[in-house]
């Protein structure tokens, strides 16, 4: 089945659609949708080439479908790249840029980088605040 036909069947009703406000934007919770916006460009169900960003215990995992792989063979058809939390945003930028340079959905490069960076920032451990120093008269008295 073609991607256009799949989108025509999925765009009005599917179980991943989220309609909160009557006149507001329509969101989607489907796997492979980087921005969670219900549109054909970002759809993880209708497109053959998708980039999935998942949060794991060891960091962030970027998965993409291999070129020419059957849609029915899900596990062997997906290649994964792991980004550790301590690697930082530059490693994530390199991984997403590598996918885009190879011609694998270059239009999703910015969205994938934003998603990975947001997950890495959320996983980052915050530093403890240093103790406050006493200043002025209190410091002189002590």
Outline of the structure:
It contains four helices and five strands. By secondary structure, the chain is an alpha+beta fold. The strands form two sheets. It has a three-stranded antiparallel β-sheet, with helices on one face. It has a two-stranded antiparallel ribbon with strand order 1-2.
Describe the 3D structure:
By secondary structure, this protein is α+β, with helices and mostly antiparallel strands. It contains four helices and five strands, in the order αβββββααα. The strands form two sheets. Strands 3-4-5 form a three-stranded antiparallel β-sheet, with helices on one face. Strand 1 and strand 2 form a beta hairpin. The longest helix is centred in the last third of the chain and has 15 residues. It starts with a helix and ends with a helix.
What attributes does this structure have?
alpha+beta; 142 residues; three-stranded antiparallel sheet; 4 helices; two-stranded antiparallel sheet
Roughly what is the average pLDDT, rounded to an integer? 85
Q: What order do the helices and strands follow?
A: HEEEEEHHH
- What gap, in angstroms, lies between the N and C termini? 79 Å
Largest sheet, strands/sense/barrel: 3 strands, antiparallel
Q: DSSP strand (E) fraction?
A: 15-25%
Strands, total number: 5
């Amino acid at each position: 089945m073609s991607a256009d036909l799949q989108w025509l069947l999925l765009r009005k009703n599917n179980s991943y659609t989220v309609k909160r406000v009557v006149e507001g934007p329509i969101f989607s919770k489907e796997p492979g949708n980087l921005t969670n916006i219900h549109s054909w460009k970002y759809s993880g169900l209708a497109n053959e080439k998708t980039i999935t960003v998942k949060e794991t215990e060891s960091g962030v995992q970027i998965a993409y479908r291999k070129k020419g792989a059957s849609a029915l063979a899900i596990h062997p058809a997906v290649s994964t790249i792991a980004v550790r939390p301590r690697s930082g945003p530059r490693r994530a930028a390199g991984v997403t840029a590598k996918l885009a340079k190879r011609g694998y959905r270059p239009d999703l490069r910015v969205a994938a980088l934003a998603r990975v960076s947001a997950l890495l920032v959320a996983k980052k451990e915050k530093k403890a605040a240093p103790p406050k120093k006493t200043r002025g008269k209190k410091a002189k008295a002590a």
